[in-house]
Design goal:
Keywords: Oxidoreductase. GO terms for molecular function: oxidoreductase activity. By secondary structure, the protein is α/β, with parallel strands linked by helices. It has one domain: Alpha-Beta Barrel (TIM Barrel), CATH 3.20.20. 39% of the residues lie in helices and 14% in strands. The strands form three sheets. It has a seven-stranded parallel beta sheet, with helices on one face. The chain is globular. Bound molecules: NADP nicotinamide-adenine-dinucleotide phosphate (NAP). NADP nicotinamide-adenine-dinucleotide phosphate binds next to helix 7, helix 10 and helix 11. The site of NADP nicotinamide-adenine-dinucleotide phosphate has 28 residues, from helix 7, helix 10 and helix 11.
């Protein structure tokens, strides 16, 4: 699958569970690194991280550090030169665990330079604007992203948590995947939450990769997919797979630009993630799964007021 000019595997690894969890307990570092190594061994070449994926506000960069260490210490057969590291900036965390946003040019440049230093890369493969900053117009935020690209700090630009209007505006500022502009959108999308079908349709039209975040509904609900959605359990039985594997296959069946990034914190999970790639659902099974009714409850319902567009 192509993200702009870069070829990656048809499924990626979401690295957030190494550093940011609902329980606030993070797995041992060696386990996280072994999970990345298992993913590389299995041919996964897209790793999704973010600067704010960290156990606490004062350990920002924790997740990027683990990704960097895993790539540095990998001794397996895969060529790490073909791995795309996708990180994000624009979210902020401060003392007392306050969460905020900073997509100003200075704020985004400082975050990006810190990510570059941690990742040990001259330029970031894919840099995604994490969340809108309501203190600025979206036009200005897209300009911040364009400035990082024009300065050579990032190779490719993506958006996250955007509306269709924001995507269209960013396309005006940065261009699309064929002219070095927006190559990806990362929005929440799972059996539970499918509110951004208009964004997905636009991505499909333009060849912009859609990275559904929390594709299994997030760490807690991931284990309950089969019990919450009887159709997924039913199809899983029909194709002799797990309900989670069926979710990943179904997502990929929704659009040629869909590239799921399931999170994992254990090497054993990687085998199942990769197994999902060999499932072929019939058109009838795909339609039956799509017909299940989402609960439409977001993992992060309080996204704050949206930015003005211009
Ligand atoms: N842009 C954003 O605002 C945003 C927000 C949230 C997440 N994200 C990204 O999206 C990624 C995925 O989201 P997520 O980690 O929240 O949720 P998720 O992918 O829906 O669920 C992750 C959980 O699913 C389990 N799992 C994964 N594959 C499985 C399989 N085949 N069978 C059984 N269990 C499986 C993992 O178990 P184990 O831990 O036991 O391995 C993990 O606990 C994150 O890692 C992050 O990169 C982005």
């Amino acid at each position: 699958m192509r993200i702009g000019d870069f070829s990656v595997s048809a499924i990626g690894l979401g690295c957030m569970p190494f550093s940011l969890t609902m329980t606030k307990i993070v797995p041992p570092r060696e386990q996280s690194i072994a999970t990345v190594h298992a993913a590389l061994d299995a041919g996964i070449t897209l790793l999704d991280t973010a600067n704010v994926y960290a156990p606490t506000w004062d350990t920002i960069g924790h997740n990027e550090e683990i990704v960097a260490e895993a790539l540095r210490t990998y001794t397996g057969p895969a060529d790490v030169g073909v791995v795309m590291v996708a990180t994000k900036g624009g979210s902020a965390r401060g003392e007392g665990e306050t969460w905020g946003r900073n997509a100003s040019l200075d704020g985004l440049r400082a975050a990006c330079e810190k990510s570059l230093a941690i990742l040990g890369m001259p330029s970031i493969d894919l840099y995604q604007l994490h969340r809108h900053d309501p203190k600025m117009t979206y036009f200005e935020q897209a300009q911040s992203l364009a400035a990082l690209r024009d300065a050579g700090l990032i190779r490719r630009a993506g958006l996250s948590n955007c509306t269709l209007a924001e995507l269209n505006l960013a396309l005006e500022v940065l261009g699309g995947p064929t002219d070095g502009g927006i190559v990806s959108v990362q929005n929440e999308f799972s059996p539970r939450y499918r509110n951004d079908v208009d964004v997905l349709d636009r991505c499909t039209e333009l060849g912009i990769v859609f990275l559904p975040w929390s594709p299994l509904g997030g760490a807690v609900q991931a284990q309950e997919v089969g019990s919450r959605y009887a159709e997924f359990a039913q199809v899983a039985e029909e194709v002799s797979a797990s309900a989670q594997e069926v979710v990943l296959a179904w997502l990929r069946g929704l659009s040629p630009v869909m590239l799921p990034i399931p999170g994992a914190s254990r090497p054993a999970t990687i085998a199942s993630i990769v197994r999902s790639l060999s499932i072929s659902l019939t058109a009838e099974q795909q339609a039956r799964l799509t017909a299940t009714v989402p609960e439409s409850v977001s993992m992060f319902p309080d996204n704050g007021p949206r930015s003005a567009l211009r």
